[in-house]
Design brief:
Helix 1 packs antiparallel against helix 2, helix 7 runs antiparallel to helix 10 and helix 7 packs across helix 11. It is globular and about 75 Å long. It contains 15 helices and 20 strands. The longest helix has 19 residues. The chain has four domains: 167 residues, DNA primase, PRIM domain (Alpha-Beta Complex), CATH 3.90.920.10; 35 residues; 95 residues, no CATH class; 45 residues. By secondary structure, it is an alpha+beta fold. 34% of the residues lie in helices and 21% in strands. It has a four-stranded antiparallel sheet with strand order 2-1-3-14, with no helix packed on it. Bound molecules: zinc ion (2 copies).
């Protein structure tokens, strides 16, 4: 990595108050460092105090700093069996890279390594021209991507973690990852002992895996007779499905309804939309004597509507009982932004591209290879290609870390 980046990272860690590196039960965590240019992490580190960790960061200037979601008796043991696992926080990872957003057409490109076919936006699973799966991607993240990831975090907290799992806001920590998304840590005795299987159940529940709306209280008395369904005030997926159907029918155009249930049923619903909605809300579980719709059509709507309420987490992170996750207030080696803690009450107005900026003031001269529009703080540049520019320090370091620019003196 360029010397200017290493110098700036070292400066950041020198200035950082050591207490900002504290995590719950600090001495029981395994630490891992990844240095610039290295593929392999240095693992099984244990620090006796946050000052000792800080010293190590100032001296070694790693690109990325991780700690274990797990608590160990011997965090430094290099044999996982000898570590003495004593539980782990429950972690959720939401990464904008995994979510299809329209803005990806503006800033992401992909190329097939076999035939050279190229395209913009979310990469295909296989090349549309030759069918091979070796796809190279160049991805960026913009305000739109990060806003989408934030909405997913709110959904996770407000629709699942708090109401369905009974976790209080005091037991969660939210972090901006420093690059493309957010992490949610549930730090509570209640989840510490969960096994991998237990965590998988939670991940599947949140992702709606194996969710069959029909199993959530729906029944039709006779062929096209009255429908019985869940109450919008029910807990868990029952209530979510009832609310999802209500929202879906009230908010969708006729075209969109047609795509789900076909023209006849869609036109029927459109004509009697008010009544349909009233039926759902009026006297559950008897959906207001709703008649004339087959349960099958209703389930098509339920499935489509419920899909919009699942939460887009990276399940591998949640079910891992000894995950290494980013250290709060450390720098991200691909962005020079910091892994910033955000309180729930500040999350709505949190702007990661401003509030996670670690370098204030100063400017850097760089040679830009190729970038889409990029904003850091108040400064916006690009799209640009093959040009020199002088930019604010934080933006320059961002582009250098992304590998999209070289320093100029
Ligand atoms: Zn191809
Ligand atoms: Zn975007």
């Amino acid at each position: 990595m360029h010397k200017v980046v290493l110098d700036e990272f070292r400066g950041y860690y020198s200035r950082l108050p050591a207490e900002q590196l504290d995590v719950k039960d600090f001495v029981r965590r395994e630490y891992a460092l990844l240095h610039f240019g290295d593929q392999k992490m240095i693992r099984h580190l244990k620090f006796d105090s946050v000052s000792e960790l800080k010293r190590s960061l100032v001296e070694g200037v790693p690109a990325n700093v991780y700690y274990s979601s797990a608590y160990y008796r011997n965090p430094q043991a290099d044999d996982m069996n000898a570590k003495g696992w004593e539980g782990a926080d429950l972690i959720f990872d939401i990464d904008a890279d995994h979510i299809r957003t329209d803005c990806k057409d503006e800033h992401d490109t992909w190329a097939c390594l076999d035939c050279g076919c190229r395209g913009r936006g979310f990469p295909p699973d296989a090349c549309p021209k030759c069918g091979m799966k070796k796809i190279d991607t160049v991805t960026w993240v913009c305000e739109g991507c990060l806003e989408t990831a934030k909405r997913e975090i709110f959904k996770l907290i407000d629709d699942f973690i708090v109401p369905d799992f009974g976790v209080s806001l005091g037991e969660i920590e939210i972090c901006f990852s420093g690059h493309r998304g957010y992490h949610l840590h549930v730090v509570s005795e209640g989840v510490r002992g969960l096994t991998g299987d237990g965590r998988r159940e939670i991940a599947d529940y949140v992702r709606g895996i194996g969710l069959d709306p029909k199993e959530h209280g729906f029944r039709q008395v006779t062929g096209t007779g009255p429908i019985v369904g869940p109450d919008m005030r029910d807990g868990g997926w029952r209530g979510k499905i009832a609310r999802a159907i209500y929202e879906f029918v009230s908010g969708r155009s006729q075209e969109e309804l047609r795509a789900v249930v076909g023209p006849v049923v869609a036109d029927n619903i459109s004509k009697g939309r008010e009544k349909f909605l009233q039926n759902i809300s009026d006297a559950p579980p008897h959906w207001g004597g709703m008649r004339g719709y087959s349960l099958e059509s209703l389930m098509k709507i339920a499935n489509a509507a419920a899909r919009e309420h699942v939460c887009n987490i990276d399940e591998r992170v949640t079910l891992d009982v000894k995950r290494l996750i980013r250290q709060p207030n450390s720098l991200h080696g691909k962005s020079a932004l910091k892994t910033a803690r955000v309180s729930y009450s500040d999350l709505e107005r949190f702007d990661p591209l401003r509030d996670a900026v670690a370098f204030m003031g100063g400017s850097i001269k760089i040679y830009v290879k190729e970038i889409p529009r990029v904003r850091i703080g108040d400064c916006e540049v690009g799209p640009a290609k093959g040009t020199e520019m002088e930019v604010p320090r934080a933006l320059g370091l961002y582009l250098l870390c992304k590998g999209a620019a070289d320093p100029r003196v």
